[in-house]
Hints:
Layout: H1 2-16, H2 21-32, H3 37-62, H4 66-74, H5 80-108
Helix pairs in contact: 1-2, 1-3, 2-3, 2-5, 3-5, 4-5
Amino acid sequence: MNFLIIAILSAVLQIFTPWWIIAIVPFVILLWRPSRSSGAFWAGFGGIAVPWLLYGYYQHFISDGALSDRVAKIFMLPNGILLLLVTALIGGLVGGFSGLAGYWVRQIFRRHPVPLSGPAS
C-alpha cells in the first residue's frame, strides 16, 4: 500500500513541484505509515522508480526514441532504453534511501524501538 501511495503522490506532485519532491514523499509516507526497514526501502525505491520508468518509456515511445537516444549519446550510453533504466535506478535509490530515513526517524520516536542487532553476548 505504501508503494501505491508513494507512486501516485509523487507522480502528481512532480507536475507542480521541483524534481526533489521524490525525496520528501517517501520520507513522509514511511514516517507516517508503519513498515519494516526492508519494506521501507523497497516501497520508496519502487514508488519512485516505476513512475519514472513508465513516464520515460512513454516519452521514448511518442518520440520514436529520438529524444532519449540523443540524450543517451551525450552521456555516452549506447541507446535511450539504457538511459531510462539508469534514470529509474537513480530515482529509485533516492526514493529508497529517503523511505528508509523516514522509517529510521519513526523508530527514534517509538516507545519501544526495535533493536538494530541481537542481544549482546
